[in-house]
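Let's practice the habit of predicting before peeking. Look at the sequence and jot down your guess about where helices and strands might fall. Then scroll down.
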Amino acid sequence: MKQILSILAFWLVCLTAAAQQPKIQRAEIKTPDAKCESCKQIIESQAPRYVDGLVKINVIFKRGVTQVQWYPDRTNLEELKTAIANTGFDADDVTAAPDAYKKLPDCCKKKQNP
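Done guessing? Here is the structure:
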């Protein structure tokens, strides 16, 4: 009988802990300068370094967007845009960090008008 009560108590604690996790939020951020597989790799590998709470990041360079998923109790959309900007790419209304932009490969830089 004690084993059954112990097992029920354990499951109750597990279910309570699972119910307290915040819902993951999702958004698309415009990243029009991400144009190739190299850009995709740079954003997806470096942006998570700048922000805690990022669950998933997926760059769709053919559409010029980056899909993000995050925990709202750890970060917010503006911090995610800043994290992408810190990799050297514009993210919606947040401009790329100049130092990071200079380090990008030529294929990932904006085309200059002559």
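How did you do? The CA atoms of residues 8 and 103 lie 56 Å apart.
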